[in-house]
Amino acid sequence: MKKKKVGIPYALYFYEYYPLWKEFLTRLGVEVVLSRPTNKSILDSGIRSSLSEICLPVKVFYGHVLSLVDQVDYILIPRMVCIEKGAFFCPKIIGLPDMVKSSLSSICPIISPVVDVRKSYGTWKNSLFQVGQLLTENTLAISRAISLSWENFQKNYVAHLLDPKVLRPASLIEGQDSINSKRQWEEKPINIAVVGHDYLIDDSYINLNLIEKLKRMKVNVLTPGMVHPAMVKKQLKKLYKPIFWSLSRKAVGAALYYFENGVEGIIHLTSFECGEDSMVGESIHHQSQKCPEVSYTEFVFDEHTGEAGINTRIEAFLDMIRRKKRIENSLAPSW
Amino acid sequence: MRTFLGIDVGAVSTDLVLLDENNDVLNSVYLRTQGQPIKMLKEGLSIIRKENQGISLEVVGVGTTGSGRVLAGVIAGADIVKNEITAHSVAALYLNPEVRTIFEIGGQDSKIIILQNGVVVDFAMNTICAAGTGSFLDHQAYRLDIPIEEFGEYALRSENPVRIAGRCTVFAESDMVHKQQMGYKEEDIIAGLCEAMVRNYLNNVGKGKKILPTIFFQGGVAANSGIKKSFEKEIGYQVVVPEYYQVMGAIGAALLAREEIELNPRPSAFYGFELVERNYQTSGFECDGCPNHCEVVEIMVDGETIARWGDRCGKWSLGYQAIR
Amino acid sequence: MKIALPRLGNIEVMNETIITDMGHELIEIPPNTKRTLDLGVRYAPEYCCLPLKIVLGNFLEALELGAEGLIMAGGWGPCRFGYYAQVQRDILLDLGYDFKMIIIEIPRGNWNMLWENLNILRNGRSWSYFINQFRLGWQKILLMEKLENMVLSVRPREKVRGVSSRILKESMLKIKKAKNREMLKQIETETIHKFDENTDFQKQNLIRIALVGEFYVSLEPFTNHHLEEKLGYMGIEVVRKNTIEAWIGPIMRLKIFKDSFKEEQEIEEAAYPYLAHSVGGEGQTTVGNVVLAHKEGLDGAIQVIPFTCMPEIVAETILKKVSEDLDFPTLTLIYDEQTGEEGLNTRVEAFVDLLKKRRKGVRMSV
Fold first, then answer.
1. CATH of B2-88+249-277 given 3.30.540.10, 3.40.50.300, 3.30.420.40, 3.30.750.24
2. Residue of C nearest to A286 (CA)
3. pLDDT at residue A177 in the model
């Protein structure tokens, strides 16, 4: 029998949950097709097929769905509602399967299990199980696949966090030894935390290759993924009101962590028209006013964001940090 | 004479300045880019050469800035290529070390720069649209059929500026047209436009920034006294328009070139004023190597490729002069 | 304490009852104006939604008048509304104001805050008096809403243009001053009588449009550029789908622990084929209400939303499909601080023309 093919759009929450679904589906003998990293045609088709008011990440998601339509039997779009007490996903993510169904008329069947851990039908295991039942009748195999893939997902997630290559406390980063020539100030690596949603930080097409550019300019880039969830949780306790969006929790907790932990600058990546970003951006901005020693800036992305503008912003931000340090060390030009 | 050349190639204007060893402006040139940065750059250089006929000039350092800084850097042979924010702040700080805030409004983009003890501590640029920029005013001037140079005068005459809504050019335009049709006075509409622009600038670009004196207002739009007045009315501080407000970016680039050469002594990479005789061509093509379809730009001088950029993967740009 | 409550249509009718009667000094926030909006826009995050900006403007105007306590509702997502109070508080603190944000929300874990805030409002009065006045305040809201809903069908039939709005305004002032339920009853009877006197009952079969969408924008006339009045004067009967009663009613009736009510259930079921899950705010309700409006034989629906509103963008996307499937015209109006009156008028007029033509088309074919 021909293997069933399930397509997974490489966008939004799949930046976090793809490994879990991939392993689970593969164990059920299903072929998983992951859409290609975002490119021009994916972005363009996403923009064409969605309302102009929708935020960029959802447009990108549409584009990925469309790129899969002809290749697969099903497309997986879980309805992510709630994965922890007291927090939700954003309304557009909760409504995502319905939005896709409404906007795209010719589309293959969508599998949209509900993940809502407050409800018995919505636990991770139950939603994985529902998906399994659509694909095979062998319930034993489904149960086995669930427990193995869930276990691995948890294990890898934690292992990923503990990997020394990934987790580098900012204070340990090289380049702290004495510096005596003016040139060396320009060359010394600086530590910059890039915070925001994973789907912006890791999508190099949308963020115009920001991370690579920073690295080329001798920046140690730190991301929310490098902050242990326990630290994130601890930082969030400082807020006047807990944040009730799961995806933003990580971004804000990490930002607050980095403000205290020796980075020279923080860049907050946001998407234009993102409701979450508009609010949590304010929390991060508020914090930045209390930590003037850490330079802070916000980069807004949308489909019109131009390379030139972003380059200027990056360069100006790094200049600002480097020139500040130079003056602090009285290496300013003599005239 | 030892001199430093600063070049600012923007979307709307191409500016050049030549500084002497006391950092005094020997020549300054302000030209409309008109979509032809290379031609204008060459023209600017010929003007400077002509103005200095008979004087032996040694260009010790060249700096470029502006949205066309990379292109200008390749064409002229720059010792440093810097972004506009750094360039503008360096120039303003040189003129007045006390400056705390810079409003820079150019043709296509606008910026705010916040300084403290002589260093930039915060900055912002307009995002997405052009509402708080010079092209917004240009566009409205065209619509009203009034030369942009006279906008300031008109605005100053107004006693009752009309309220024009809209951060977006499109919205503002429709509101303006409506106000025209309602029969408001021209000067009141123009003053309203100035106020709308200042409001948009402060609400978008200047959001959340602590604006403290001394305040510099530079960039092409600073020529418009109506905008200066609206700024002062809105923030309650005096706003200073420096003498060379139009070419501050170029001055900053020249100062940065000097700093660079003094930091790392070396002969300048400048091709000399003779470059105006060279023949530059640019061409572009869409790479179809992957679904990204990058638009690659190629710069050739007398038939030989000297630079390429625009590709994400480096397939085309590798091997050519790396642009910082 | 000098206390202020943000504006939302005529919600001020209960101010005296729940603030002055508790011995507080009431700071009346001036009506929403361009200035309110300007103040809010200046200090609010650029891309946050419009209601946050206007309410922030209300607060700034209240603080200028010397307010010390600001009452605000809360929530727990996923709609941004749940953060309004916190973000506004941060902004106002950054601006150097000294005040107490009195946030009324169903707590998650921390009941102390609600207790503390209720005690601030109670101001030493007995609980029974406090609850009684709160209930009276609630009765005022219910009556206000009832009359506002009535005026929607009176206005397109009024004998003298503008008379029903005037009657309504006068009644609101009376409701505001009313001291007990008997007075409210009397106001109700009087107002209905006046409405009847001024209604031309000959006018039948008017075009009826459902007003759906985001709560604040749909109920706040300044914010939606007086859409209800505008439609009324065009001879349209507006059917308001969002009500304060449905919004806080469940809490007021102390039925917070019950999951859903009959009406809500009906709306949810109507939405289900298109939007199978609540998305926060009024997202699912909007979809359900449009389906129901079609069922009830209305001519069309207008969805009003603030720019970037998350739940309503979900609804807007889905309404395209609903409208197509049911052959039911819908118009989405997106509001933000730069919405110009003319563009809005053009779209509303064109939509009304479209509905009128459809009516004629139907009649001809019958």
1. 3.30.420.40
2. C90
3. 40
CA angle C141, C146, C147 (to 5 degrees): 100
Give which of C79, C313, C321 to mutate to test A binding, by max A Cβ within 10 Å: C313
Smallest Cβ distance to A275: which of C308, C321, C322? C308
**Model's pTM, two decimal places?**
0.86
Which residues of chain B have a CB within 8 Å of the CB of A211? none
pLDDT < 50: residue spans in chain A: 164-182, 184-185
C343 in reach of chain B (CB within 8 A): yes
Which numeric CATH code is attached to C2-125?
Answer: 3.40.50
Residue pair B227/B215 in contact by the 8 Å Cβ criterion: no
Summarize pLDDT for C312-359 with one digit per residue, the tens: 999 999 999 999 999 999 999 999 876 667 778 888 999 999 999 898
Task: Look at residue B199 in the predicted model and tell me its pLDDT.
Answer: 83
* Contacts B165 to C, Cβ<8 Å: 337-340
Q: How far is B139 from B67, CA to CA, in rounded Å?
A: 20
> Would the CB atoms of A275 and C283 count as touching at under 8 Å?
no
Predicted local distance difference test score (pLDDT) of residue B278 = 86
Tell me the CATH architecture of domain B96-242.
2-Layer Sandwich (3.30)
Chain C residues with CB-CB distance to B172 below 8 A? 338
Architecture per CATH, domain C206-366, reads as 3-Layer(aba) Sandwich (3.40)
Q: Which residues of chain C have pLDDT under 70?
A: 249-261, 338-340, 362-366
Question: B121: which chain A residues are within 8 Å (Cβ-Cβ)?
Answer: 292, 295, 320, 324
Is B178's Cβ below 8 Å from some Cβ in C? yes
Residue C169: CB atoms within 10 A of its CB come to 10
Question: Using one digit for the tens of pLDDT, what is the confidence trace for B95-134?
Answer: 999 999 999 988 777 899 999 888 888 888 876 555 667 7
Number of alpha carbons in the 13 Å side-chain half-sphere of residue A188: 22
C35 touches B at CB < 8 Å:
no
Q: Does B125 touch chain C (CB under 8 A)?
A: no
Average pLDDT over residues B146-158: 86
Contact C311, C279 (CB under 8 A): yes
Q: Does residue B108 belong to the interface with chain A, where contact is any CB pair within 8 Å? A: no
Q: Give the lowest-confidence range in B243-247, B303-307, C294-298.
A: B303-307
- Name which of A221, A154, A200 is nearest A305 in CA terms: A200
Q: Which residue of B has its CA nearest to C343?
A: B174
Per-residue model confidence (pLDDT) at position A42: 94
Q: Where are the beta strands (DSSP E) in chain A?
A: 5-8, 31-34, 74-76, 79-82, 110-111, 114-116, 190-195, 219-222, 265-271, 295-301
